[in-house]
Amino acid sequence: MATACCRHHRVSSGEWCAQEMSGAAVSVGLLFLLSVCSACYISNCPIGGKRSIMDAPLRKCMSCGPGDRGRCYGPSICCGEGIGCLMGSPESAHCVEENYLLTPCQAGGRACGSEGGRCAAAGFCCDAESCTADQSCLPEDNGDDQSSQFEGGDPTDIILRLLHLARHTSHRTHQ
């Protein structure tokens, strides 16, 4: 038994007429395939593919705070020697830009805390969401041997520490 399907074609009742498939059904099918697909498109694909990001060396997180003396630890956390930790302040506002960069970063010194934090400022351990007081982040020496702090340091860090030391010394003489 044949039925009329398409304009001038006759097909049996068990066959399907491909010409009647509407453009909307094709569009829905393509949209479904696109939503399931997790391809790496040309515009946002890192060199080497998606997994190459995990192999890339970590870079320092963005600088922040007054005079860019701190580093971003989270979207609204900026910490550094001499400034402490600034959370939710105007100085830490641009730290949210770190979320839009393709390569991962690492801020701070040694690992601390239970949430994968890093030592941020003297006595503070910060992760991407918060900061807590942590004894393991206190400086190891009490200022008895100032020269050991400068070994292997960045020249700008050395200058900042010298200025910090000079400020404290002049403050003590005026008291």
Give the helix/strand layout:
Blueprint: E1 2-4, E2 10-12, H1 23-36, H2 52-55, E3 59-60, E4 63-64, E5 70-74, E6 77-80, E7 84-87, E8 105-106, E9 111-112, E10 117-119, E11 124-126, E12 131-133, H3 147-150, H4 155-173
Parallel strand pairs: 3-8
Antiparallel strand pairs: 1-2, 4-5, 5-6, 6-7, 9-10, 10-11, 11-12
GO molecular function: neurohypophyseal hormone activity
Keywords: Amidation, Cleavage on pair of basic residues, Disulfide bond, Hormone, Membrane, Signal, Transmembrane, Transmembrane helix
Protein name: Oxytocin
Text of the CATH class of the largest domain:
Mainly Beta
Cα-based radius of gyration, to the nearest Å? 30 Å
**Helix count from the secondary structure assignment:** 4
Ranges where pLDDT stays below 50 over 5 or more residues in a row are 143-152, 168-175
Counting DSSP E segments of at least 2 residues, the number of strands comes to 12
Helix content: 10-25%
Shape: elongated
Give the terminus-to-terminus CA distance: 109 Å
Family: Belongs to the vasopressin/oxytocin family.
Transmembrane segments: 21-42
Protein name: Oxytocin
Keywords: Amidation, Cleavage on pair of basic residues, Disulfide bond, Hormone, Membrane, Signal, Transmembrane, Transmembrane helix
How would you describe the overall organization of this protein?
This protein has 175 residues and is α+β, with helices and mostly antiparallel strands. The chain folds into 3 domains: 2-36, no CATH class; 60-137, Neurohypophysial hormone domain (Neurophysin II, Chain A); 142-175. The protein has 4 helices and 12 strands, in the order E-E-H-H-E-E-E-E-E-E-E-E-E-E-H-H. It has helices at residues 23-36, 52-55, 147-150, 155-173, and strands spanning 2-4, 10-12, 59-60, 63-64, 70-74, 77-80, 84-87, 105-106, 111-112, 117-119, 124-126, 131-133. The strands form 4 sheets. Strands 4-5-6-7 form a 4-stranded antiparallel beta sheet, with no helix packed on it. The chain has a 4-stranded antiparallel beta sheet with strand order 9-10-11-12, with no helix packed on it. Strands 1-2 form a two-stranded antiparallel sheet. It is elongated, with a radius of gyration of 30 Å. It starts with a strand and ends with a helix.
